[in-house]
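Forum: Protein Structure Q&A
Topic: Joint prediction for protein chains with partners

I've read a bunch of threads here and the consensus seems to be that you should model interacting components together rather than docking separate models afterwards. I'd like to see that in practice. Below is the full input, 795 residues plus whatever partners are listed. Could one of the regulars post the assembled result?
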Amino acid sequence: MTESAEKIKKQFIDKGIEKGVEELTPEKIEKTINKILKSETGARFKAYVETCVHCGLCSEGCHYYLSHDKDPAFSPAGKVKQTIWEIVKTKGKVSPEFIKQACEIAFTECNLCKRCAMYCPFGIDVAYLMLTMRRICHMLGVVPQYICDTAHSHASTMNQMWVKDDEWIDSLIWQEEEAREEIPDLRIPLEKEGADIFYSVIGPEPKFRAQLIYQAAVIMNVAGADWTMPATPGWDNSDMCMFIGENEMMGRLKKSHFEAAMRLKVKRIVMGECGHAFRSVYDMGNRWLGWKMPPIPVIHALEFYHELLTQGKIKVAKKFDKAVTFHDPCNVVRGRGLHEMGREVTRAFTNELIEMHPNREQNLCCCAGGGVINCGPPFKMKRIDGDRIKAEQLFNAKSRGASTIIAPCHNCHGGLEDIVHHYGLGMDIKFLGDIIYECMEKPGASEG
Amino acid sequence: MHDLYAFVSGPLVWVAFIIFFGGSIYRLVSMAILAKKKDGVVFEYFNFKYALRSIFHWIIPFASTNWRLHPWMTIVTFAFHIGLIFTPVFLFAHIILIKESWDISWWAMPDGLADILTLVVIASCVFFFVRRQVLPEVKYLTSTSDYVILVLVALPFITGFWTYHQWPESTFMGILHILSGEVMLAVIPFTKLSHMLFFPITRGYMGSEFGGVRQAKDW
Amino acid sequence: MRKTLGLLFLFSFLAASLVGFSAYCQEDISFVGDSAFTERMRPSVPFLHDDHNEMANIEDCNECHHVWEDGKKLEWDSSEDKECSECHLSQESGDSDMDLIKAYHNMCKECHIGQKAGPVQCSECHIK
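Posted by a regular:
Agreed with the consensus. Here's the joint model:
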């Protein structure tokens, strides 16, 4: 092993990890690892571990690798080597220090974006392996503190942000009042049984991005949608439990979400512009509950906007006056193929769409998703350093004229904001809903 | 030498083939049973149309983004795998032996082509060896067994070429050729060479997930 | 004699075609040949008829120049007055043991393995 191949490890201080590791003993580690490997992993795990021929072709798939001057320790297989291969090889006989390192790698050096699955000739799912490592860390009680707190919030309140039940209702009524200033007859219909659409959002929206609820309400009202939001838990479609390997809680969250929609007898769930929540509802949580596909049709905001536009329910009043570029979030593009729909809506509402390269399924990750941004301040710089390549990609788009980034995902927003700020890119970041709200016709709006 | 020849060209061939086919079937069946028991998703989401769509993009040179990103690796790895599979199967000398044993035969490639393909395989092994030594991202992942496998794969081709061209000690090389071929065949199911068996499944499954659920491309 | 089975993927070759012949001046024979071999895939096999038989202690011609009838080798008959291909052309008989190349290969190899003497691998007979 060469020196250059060794990752220069910076010591991060995270109380959740440090405290958790203090409690560990080699026996506990061995027992837990073997229990998880035996009871929860099977053919996929075995095939992924045994089929990898150590060719290194996955490397170019990873933004961490590309951002760290191609340090092999950041390549997808390199990260698997430092975590999963080692626990398989040693049959769980690893030290607490190893678990600490493995936890840091699995939680903060992989966004589970699955880009590498498109670079591995065998289609080995490194994100799945990293999630398995996270699951083991979770079962060992070694989880970064911030995301662990978020998961606790989920467990206590069924939402991500410790929002109390009355605060939720209050936020909706507040946004309804605000929006009625603009559109006098606007409603945010709570608990409307039999509505077409159950609109769900992530916890941070009522907490500190309430204007997104406002905008969504305006779009729904203009489009004449028959929609509702629940006044009970189950309104939050987000899921940090999924990202720490707390699968049982992931299942409870999704159940609560689906059941809220079913109780209201809606036809389908429309989700706000969030990527990980979509993954949770459409891909992972439903499976945990035994649903091959979600029990109620679920569509992401991008698809919904596209539907409204193509059905003529929303119309373009003016074009957004700055050139934009479109950031493809992993969970709705590699996760649901919404890249063309997103672009069609973008083109309709803007004068100029300048592509970043690579794009669509090949787009580079924001480095915030997969729960990494939720690991909080201790790892902020790690995220930013780990996505220098994104800054280069964005700068390239900017050099060709793009000044606004459309990022239809909350995590992407957070990640890109940090990158834009740190690297001094000076670009605006918007949700697609921001642009639609700003540029669409609003027939019922009051003057001025 | 005669007993040795009779042994490696007789019973050992059977042993090698039984281990290869039996081992391959065992690996695939036991994996399928495990999947049925523990990974219901694999059967639920497996979709032949999307599996094939993905597999085709990965078994055609330059049909995936990553193949285009690594042109040299792509050319070498395809040439290598073509040589590795086609040379032994369509070699005139092998076909004659099979015909005389089992009364079946098929098209044989010209010896000149076999020579070229053999050299391509050997050169590719050298390329892979150098690649493991030189590229940091590959070196980082490489373990001793990866080199052992390279040698196991190269050996039947080196010895075959040697004995065909009747270089010194070609009788010994002939025996070594038979033996190394048998060893390579027998270890396929139980080493990293099993990627031969699992490629269609892992790639196909990822293709199914991407095509059927994610509605996106995976190449 | 035991049949050597299953030589798949092995690089042993058209083993020795040592049934040297042509009924007439056998002392001059230095290569195995048959007029049926028109296009050669491998170099001819050098073979000194008398030296071989002396070394191998072969007295009876029909040790090699056999005649078969009804699945039995005729003890007192021999065929040194014929070319092998006069009988050994599998296309006509449909019996693969009658295949000319196979007849040569088996004749040499099986005996050599049995006697633990003489060449058996491709490269040992088809010398370049």
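The radius of gyration of chain A is 22 Å.
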